Amino acid sequence: MTRIKSYHISLLWLLLWCLCSTICGAFLVLEDLFASNFELFIRYVAVGNEPFLSTYNGSFLGTTLPALQNIQSALTKAGLDARVKVTVPLNADVYESPTNLPSDGNFRSDIQDLMLSIVKFLSDNGAPFTVNIYPFISLYTNPNFPLGFAFFNNSSSSSFTDGGKIYDNVFDANHDTLVWALQKNGYGNLSIVIGEIGWPTDGDQNANLNYAQQFNQGFMNNVIAGKGTPMRPAPVDAYLFSLLDEDAKSIQPGNFERHWGLFYLDGQPKYALSLGTTNSNGLVPARGVTYLAQKWCIMSPSASLDDPQVAPSVSYACARADCTSLGYGTSCGDLSAQGNISYAFNSYYQQNNQLESACGFPDNLSVVTSNDPSTGTCKFRIMIQSHSVTSGVEGGRGFSMSSFVAFAFAFLSAFL
Ligand SMILES: *[C@@H]1O[C@H](CO)[C@@H](O)[C@H](O)[C@H]1NC(C)=O
Ligand SMILES: *[C@@H]1O[C@H](CO)[C@@H](O)[C@H](O)[C@H]1NC(C)=O
Ligand SMILES: *[C@@H]1O[C@H](CO)[C@@H](O)[C@H](O)[C@H]1NC(C)=O
Ligand SMILES: *[C@@H]1O[C@H](CO)[C@@H](O)[C@H](O)[C@H]1NC(C)=O
Ligand SMILES: *[C@@H]1O[C@H](CO)[C@@H](O)[C@H](O)[C@H]1NC(C)=O
Ligand SMILES: *[C@@H]1O[C@H](CO)[C@@H](O)[C@H](O)[C@H]1NC(C)=O
Asked: What is the annotated signal peptide range for this record (predicted)?
């Protein structure tokens, strides 16, 4: 594997779901690789995304390895197999340790045989094992999880030793549980790629700018310093998750899902992050982004909280727009009842490109204002200009292509 840089950003991942036929798989790969201007940058094809999550009830157990094999044979036929590797990003729940000690790690017992077949496939083809590791999720799912242990540089009472190796953060412990699982099964040299690592900034009491910066900078500092984990001392190969917030992503796993970006939706960096490049500013803001007018939709000062239309209107707005910044410990968690309602109305209004009718909630509950209702950490955002559809409630959300390109270049320039 040619190491271009010791870390990369998920921008260049090619995500390919191909659970159809061999032929479909083959054509998809060839078409994409040959047609793409980014051909030189493609190093991996990722098949699926965390297919063995227990919430999928085993739906993808039978199809994942055949899909990997199909894509591999397509790459081989195209003569690209030496340069481009096939892998499958797995959730860290494909391995476990009954004692929590990395040295007791092994693959999850219900998928042990399948995991060994996949590991053999990866090893035979010189491809890496790809795993997504999320200390934030450890904290989210376990309220008793020791906060400091989720980060990289906080000396914490949760540190422990395992065979003389010191573990002072959960990422190292989790990563090395995988190393032990591989080693125990005869694949101790298989390379590992961290397919996703990051920390969200909103939507949960532990999702904020401070923690996200602390986590991501702590991680990057280790990479920059050439430091790996106790079992694999060389720096890890990782993709930061993610580039941008995604305001329409499913929040079934939690409200934080829409806030993983290093950048807000409009391409503005959320916090300083040194990536160890010549650009000391780290993240570069998008250039040439244009915004809609300085107008917000709020709850009318003359409307009453007791109006029976309030609850259904807020539900309607939140179901179609984004209210994940409301709730305990979030950026807008301290709003008044009126503030909450205004936030919901404004989100709906902005996501509909400030369409007049999108601020027309029943009983005259809403009104457009030119006074920014933002307070403290709570930002009432204005949507960026869309060059595409501007009419219709469903149309035109998100980036214009020119903005996106300006942004992508600004971002990439941080790496040059
Ligand atoms: C898994 O099973 C649960 C309970 O039977 C069901 O609600 C859910 O939709 C299933 N998920 C998938 C991906 O099949
Ligand atoms: C990290 O350590 C500092 C200093 O001991 C402490 O103030 C901070 O709260 C810790 N951060 C976390 C997330 O535990
Ligand atoms: C792993 O790599 C080392 C160093 O290249 C080598 O000595 C060792 O035999 C390899 N082990 C396996 C299991 O391939
Ligand atoms: C950990 O690292 C972050 C980012 O470099 C820094 O802001 C924070 O102060 C550090 N915490 C400790 C306890 O050193
Ligand atoms: C505002 O909305 C959030 C999220 O729905 C809720 O937790 C909070 O209690 C609300 N605040 C008030 C004052 O109603
Ligand atoms: C809403 O406001 C308009 C104009 O002020 C008024 O004509 C209308 O009766 C109001 N509707 C309700 C339901 O209060």
From this structure: 1-26
The closest alpha carbon to 343, from 363, 362, 327, belongs to 327
For the CA of 364, the nearest atom of ligand 6: 1
pLDDT at 135 over 80: yes
Question: Does the annotation count 50 as an active-site position?
Answer: yes
What are the pLDDT digits (tens) for 384-407?
A: 997 654 444 333 333 343 344 344
Q: Which two tokens stand for residue 265?
A: 């939706």
Ligand 4: residue of 147, 153, 223 to mutate (most ligand atoms within 8 A of CB) is 153
> Architecture of 6-286+403-413 per CATH?
Alpha-Beta Barrel (3.20)
**Cα of 108 to ligand 5 centre, how many Å?**
40
- Give the closest residue (by CA) to ligand 4 atom 1: 153
The residue from 31, 39, 50, 257 that is catalytic is 50
Q: Whose CA is nearest to atom 1 of ligand 5?
A: 340
pLDDT averaged over the chain? 86
**Domain boundaries of the chain, sorted by first residue:** 6-286+403-413, 296-383
Q: How confident is the model at residue 11 (pLDDT cuts 50, 70, 90)?
A: very low
The architecture (CATH level 2) of 296-383 comes to Up-down Bundle (1.20)
- The CA distance from 248 to 231, in Å, is 39
Q: How far is the CA of 53 from the centre of ligand 1 (A)?
A: 11
* Whole-prediction pTM: 0.83
Q: Which of 202, 213, 210 is nearest to 330 (CA)?
A: 202
Per-residue pLDDT tens over the stretch 322-368: 999 999 999 999 999 999 999 999 999 999 999 999 999 999 999 99
For ligand 1, say whether the CB of 27 is within 6 Å of any of its atoms.
no
List Cβ neighbours of 339 (8 Å cut-off, separation of 6 or more). Answer: 332, 373, 375, 378
Length of the chain: 416
